[in-house]
TrEMBL record:
InterPro entries membership: Class_I_gatase-like, PdxT/SNO, PdxT/SNO_CS
Entry keyword Hydrolase: yes
Upper taxonomic lineage: Bacteria, Bacillati, Actinomycetota, Actinomycetes, Micrococcales
Catalysed reactions, as listed in the record: L-glutamine + H2O = L-glutamate + NH4(+); aldehydo-D-ribose 5-phosphate + D-glyceraldehyde 3-phosphate + L-glutamine = pyridoxal 5'-phosphate + L-glutamate + phosphate + 3 H2O + H(+)
Designated name of the protein: Pyridoxal 5'-phosphate synthase subunit PdxT
């Protein structure tokens, strides 16, 4: 068993960077913002936070990080994408703006702003496979202009779906090997169990 503790980067171009750093730090792992190639090279894994996927896409290119992040993902770097981060890690996107690209990695099609424009934000409780005790103590999930997963290819595994309301059945958490994506924002609730799942994925990859 490797004993080294991982360093997890949080892509720090836009979005909920501080909240992810705080959640990871509270779990006892080193967490640092990543804005440069040299910072990316120094981390074992990467969190892609929520924010605005079109903006993050543009900034990734402007900072010349899109190629290096793609290379790391192709080489097996674990990554966790929340909301806009889920969009960035999806292989296919519906409802993107003209020219919007994703980094890809997860064999899913996501629909941007899927829950409807009139409901910018909603909250619901979810059971998520791999998240400790969520069957008896569900994860309180916060969705903010969130995507859902419209289609899941054979390489990816569904971990969670919305249970009730108009979006019942919609897929909102998926894993593919070392890649984890959620439509919601676990970094804003103080419940660190989704981050704990990701830290375990990272530790298992070392
Ligand atoms: N709607 C945003 C997008 O398309 C995602 C929102 C979020 O990350 N909270 O990127």
């Amino acid at each position: 068993m490797p004993t080294t503790s991982p360093t997890i980067g949080v892509l720090a171009l836009q979005g909920d960077v501080r909240e992810h750093v705080a959640a990871l730090t509270s779990l006892g792992v080193a967490a640092v913002g990543v804005r440069r190639r040299s910072e990316l090279d120094a981390v074992d894994a990467l969190v892609l936070p929520g924010g605005e996927s079109t903006t993050i896409d543009k900034l990734l290119r402007a900072f010349e990080l899109d190629g290096p992040v793609r290379e790391r993902l192709a080489a097996g770097m674990p990554a966790y994408g929340s909301c806009a981060g889920m969009i960035l890690l999806a292989d296919r996107i519906i409802g993107g703006i003209d020219g919007q690209r994703t980094l890809g990695g997860v064999d899913i099609t996501v629909r941007r702003n899927a829950f409807g424009r009139q409901v910018d934000s909603f909250e619901t409780d979810l059971v998520i496979d791999g998240v400790a005790d969520s069957a008896t103590d569900p994860v309180h999930a916060v969705f903010i202009r969130a995507p859902w997963v419209e289609e899941v290819g054979p390489a990816a595994t569904v971990l969670g779906r919305v249970e009730d309301g108009p979006a019942a059945g919609r897929i909102v958490a998926v894993r593919q090997g070392p890649l984890l994506v959620t439509s919601f924002h676990p970094e804003v609730t103080g419940d660190t169990r989704v981050h704990r799942l990701f830290v375990q994925i990272v530790r298992d990859s070392l």
